[in-house]
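Figure 2 data, in text form.
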Amino acid sequence: MDDFIAWFQHHGGVLDTSIMGIADFPGSGRGAIALKDIPEGSTIFTLPRSLTLSTRTSNLPSAFGVEAWRKYNLHKGWVGLILCIMWEEAHGNEGKWYAYLASLPTHFDTPIFWSDEELQELQGTAVVDKIGRVEAECDYHEKMIPAIKTRPDLFPTKKIDTWYTLHRYHITGNRILSRSFQVERWKGDVKQEDSDEHEDVPEDSIEDTQANTSIGSAMDIDGTGDGDEALGEESSDSDDEDIDDSSEVSMVPMADLLNARYDSENAKLFYEEYHLQLVTTKPIKAGEQIFNTYGDPPNSDLLRRYGHVDLVPCPHLKGALGNPQDIVEIRADLVVKVVCGDDANDEKYQQRIDWWLDEGGDDVFVLDTDPILPVAMTSLIRLLLLTQEEWEKAREKGRPPKAKFDLQVSELLRRIFEIRLSTYQSPDLETDEKLLASELLTLNKRHALIVRLGEKRILAGTLEILRLKEAVLDNAGSTSKKRVVSGGTVGGNPKRARR
């Protein structure tokens, strides 16, 4: 990493090498380590915005031409940024970001690289439908390859089979998925034709201005409330490559070295007008890892994005290891299928479903480690159970029915949860728990097992809550019947109630 650090400093980056080092951590890979006690509020490193790599700072979009860039839809999703990184890397040691790109990983344990057999282990989890391999390869064949073939001056034919292969495309996409940040536009990031109005912009920002193609606007980033703003990594909602403008997605050298772990953040990346800086958010002792954690995702997201999972003591597991942020996703079409059966496609139900979605109703319901029955799911069930007259009244009022729980709803919820549980590769909870203790599992199969086990534990907990609620209803019904008998409505002489 000496070459990378030297490159970083040569291009205006400032790293306090007396307090931060780079080390390999078992189970986490390369990361940042505190070389001595670091107080809260300390600046560990700073870098100019011109050192970030994005479609705004790479020269490729302007060299390719803005109109042509748009013609091939390179301004949509991540395909443009992937191409920029591949193009910069193809320049070898003549490229501006050569030492940085050479330091990035070339191997990932993310599911997009798994075999079909390994992917079967993830069957039923929240990972499978979000891997995006088919969509990524469609972009590669339908956008990137046609685009680069029109410009042999930028993409020499002899380089295509080496630097622009599908495998490199996936590697680069995973680098972005696991390491990118959202970097908002700044004062110097203006259209070239407007650059005369900003003569006071520092030199490093002028460089960015010249590279800028102005192909989109930045996404909002939450502020910290103290004047500086915290920089956010890509959110799970924005990594599906379906955004119209990816110009705010950036690779940030040095910052992407930091690992993340549940409830362990001790530093955060902030941006100022012309530079970014990593600042500690709590004291860090010598020998501790420096973490930059944005949110605490479930293991399904951690595996899909980073190729690892978190295992920490969990209250909902009575101290056993797991991820407190794990979730289970249940699609609304499963709810409809269970409630409506073979009549799910009937017009009367389709009207209600369309209305539910138009009114902002969920099409995916989420269960988490807090075992509470999903209110929105119960509301949808009751909507589908309404008589035609009741449905028309609900539509007229403009609000779905209340999430009233009764034995009919309980039975439907049970069927939904049991069907959802049956979708996993191994529906049996105890079997997976025993399998996890095996030392013969490959890394990928162990990760898949941890993800599905976390989800199945949630479903098991929810089914237990359902059982308890049913018992309360049954008990209430029995008590009611006893009261009726004791009141004399069934046999014997009626008793008078005391005044």
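Caption note: The longest helix spans residues 443-486.
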